[in-house]
Amino acid sequence: MAQNPFLIVPESVDIPAPHHPTHVGILGENLVAEWLRSHDWQILHQRWTCRFGELDLVAQLPKEKSLIAFVEVKTRSQRNWDGDGLLAITPTKQAKLWKTAQSFLINYPDLAALPCRFDVAIVRCRKASASKQGHKDCFSQSVAGYILTLQTYIPDAFTHD
């Protein structure tokens, strides 16, 4: 394979792989999973994949009708272009999530009869060196040199027609 002369990455640079534990997207998913557990949810799967896409979190609320939530987590820095991730959840993305969730339910038929919904979690990420304090009502965590804060959790954020 020919090297791209315009892409020069020194060997000393450590670029985390997308599924590396310190990758901020995964850190955001971990934060939301912890928050859900603190609210009595059980995490069934994290980063469940199939040929249609990926479900960030699949959670079950054992109480109250045994609800299943497919949670899309958007982790963003303070200066982002897409409304903290909300603009990235386009109708095309929603359809892809719906198809992926259908595939999940085919693979887990014991869960298929339960009520399901699509939730969205918005996580703010900043370097730990930035000494701003999070809002006291927010769920925050300092990990791997970052401070992650769950800014918004939107239950039943969208439905599929």
TrEMBL record:
Any matching Pfam family: UPF0102
InterPro entries: Restrct_endonuc-II-like, tRNA_endonuc-like_dom_sf, UPF0102_YraN-like
Gene Ontology MF terms in the entry: nucleic acid binding
HAMAP family per UniProt: UPF0102
Family, as annotated: Belongs to the UPF0102 family.
UniProt protein name: UPF0102 protein GS601_02950
